[in-house]
Write a structure and sequence with these properties.
Helix content is 44%, strand content 13%. Strand 2, helix 4 and strand 3 form a beta-alpha-beta unit. With 224 residues, it is α/β, with parallel strands linked by helices. A 6-stranded parallel beta sheet has the order 3-2-4-5-1-6, with helices on both faces. The longest helix is centred in the middle third of the chain and has 30 residues.
Amino acid sequence: MTQRAVRKTKKTESQSQKVKDIQPVTDNHRDYIRSIVENDVTICTGPSGSGKSYICSGLCSQWLHKGQYQQIIVTRPLVSAGQNIGALPGEMGDKIAPYLMPMQENFTHFLGQAFYGHYLNNKQIRYEPFETMRGATFNNSLMILDEAQNCTLNQIKMFITRIGKGSKVIINGDVKQTDIRKWSGLAESIRKIGHVEGVGIVTLTIDDIQRNGIIGRILNAWEA
């Protein structure tokens, strides 16, 4: 076998590898996946550990790997608990890195390190600072806004209106947890556009938590 043939065989084997499938555990998880499939915009709310980010990362990883979409755009509001982003050390890339880590871990889990690195280097997985997205249009893309409870109504409106042809928007957040002083725009966005055709609203609950059972017990105790 020639060296060229060996390289071709290795490439074919690499392309044939599959990413991990996303496996819904609860009925609400299935509703969440169905909403993403059927709607242009999906807004999912729920407590920590209920699968908001994990499920959409898994589904988007599958679609990207199958070539159904050109890229995944991920953003999160640069808001931390008690500290302004401008006070953090380093350049913008250094400032936003800690905010992006949870999504990076999700994508690596489903794609594996090699495929994740491939899509990242080819800019098919892109992490965009939320504050710099105004004026952009994303076509044939999967657009994820994570931790949306830390967004204002105008910020969520701005993000949704970045959607281009053949794209989907997925917005996640916990309406009971916010780190901003202004009124969170997530619940208000659901009220304003929840009835619009092509918009799906999904609510996950404590019963959907799979990360660790103690989270649900702690949240139940806090809300008692």
